[in-house]
Amino acid sequence: STKKLQMVRGKKSITKDGFVVKIAANIGTPKDVEGVIDNDGEGVGLYRTEFLYMDRDKLPTEEEQFEAYKEVAIRLEGKPVVIRTLDIGGDKDLSYLKLPEEMNPFLGYRAIRLCLDRTDIFKTQLRALLRASVYGDIKIMFPMISAIEELRQAKGILEGVKEELRAENIKFNNNIEIGIMIEIPSAAVMSDLFAKEVDFFSIGTNDLIQYTTAVDRGNRKVSYLYNEFHPALLRLIKTIIDNGHKEGIKVKMCGEVAGNPKLIPILIGMGLDEFSMSASSMLRARWIVNNILKKDMEGLVEEILKLPTAQEVKEFIQKNIHI
Ligand code: PEP
Ligand code: MG
Q1: 259 lines ligand 1 (CB under 6 A)
Q2: Which ligand lies nearest to the CA atom of residue 233 in the structure?
Q3: Are 268 and 216 a contacting pair, CB within 8 Å?
């Protein structure tokens, strides 16, 4: 009930046996920060910057972007915000870029691929992000990373932009954290090595399900195959978390799974560090975290990872977790 949820306001996101996580929000515009504060969010785990680029007829300038990122950082008063660099392509088009039509847009010219090609666009965004980084706790995240080379290239461009700013005597947070979305199976498989080159992971389950099971996330005809309880997804998530932790980095999640009340206890059992979701789901998530024992969930995870079907995973959770 809502009363129950109001009781966790101002509380820590901690399990009954003392495991502390962060519960943060996904946002699309600076206006959304209001909802994050209203719902007692511990930060922003995903700021989808593509909305800054959409519904207009030209690219946003460095100044426009700087103002937006700065506003979010300031309004969060020191709470962290993970700002994701442009993730356009796939189902999100920008008419003014005149991108060629593709046979398989979700497998095509999208996100970091576009940014590494159009470095003019990418550098403008990175300059704005770095300049805004002195106003709060901004972290940068690259989307749709599929290979280590892409990450190294992106980091190289970022270093170049930092160099530029230094030469211009413009201040920025030199130790700004860099993370990647793990949302492509190849990145999940290589996550042991990716973990050595970034400060954090954020698992994007929306795309990770789509790419792992070869199910277009927007195609109704095959939506019966798109399943958050798919055992392959759960095994991948476990691998990503373990590989991140072996290198001592935080593993977060910002796809829809992070806000799924049935799966939150399982993710706690796997040791996920941060959950980012729609602002309206945060208090419920904290209530769940506050009412479970991590130790019990660890035992359930072991059992779940042996199950063969999504249906059995669902039933197992239904039967064993009463929350
Ligand atoms: C995801 O893929 O899970 C994700 C959070 O990113 P988006 O939904 O913006 O693709
Ligand atoms: Mg995604």
Answers
A1: no
A2: 1
A3: no
Q: Which sequence positions are flagged as catalytic?
A: 254
Measure the CA–CA gap between 141 and 194, rounded to whole angstroms.
Answer: 13
Report the amino acid identity of residue 75: R
204 lines ligand 1 (CB under 6 A): yes
DSSP 189-257: HTHHHHTTT-SEEEE-HHHHHHHHHT--TT-GGGGGG--TT-HHHHHHHHHHHHHHHHTT-EEEE-SGG
The one-letter amino acid code at 4 reads K
Which two three-digit tokens encode residue 89? 């392509």
Task: Using alpha carbons, select from 136, 119, 130 the residue that is nearest to residue 178.
Answer: 130
Pocket test for ligand 1, best of 26, 27, 48, 253 (most atoms within 8 A of CB): 48
Torsions phi, psi of 176, nearest 5?
-55, 135
The pTM for the full model equals 0.98
pLDDT by residue (tens digit) across 122-173? 999 999 999 999 999 999 999 999 999 999 999 999 999 999 999 999 999 9
Tell me the backbone φ, ψ of residue 48, rounded to 5 degrees: -80, 100
94: three-class secondary structure by DSSP: coil
Q: Which two tokens stand for residue 54?
A: 């959409």
ipTM surpasses cut 0.90:
yes
Q: Using the atom order of ligand 1, give the atom closest to the CA of residue 90.
A: 10
Ligand 1 atom having least distance to the Cα of 254 = 5
| Residue ranges with CB less than 5 Å from ion ligand 2 | 183, 204, 207
For 180, phi and psi rounded to 5 degrees? -130, 150
CB of 141 within 6 A of ligand 1: the answer is no
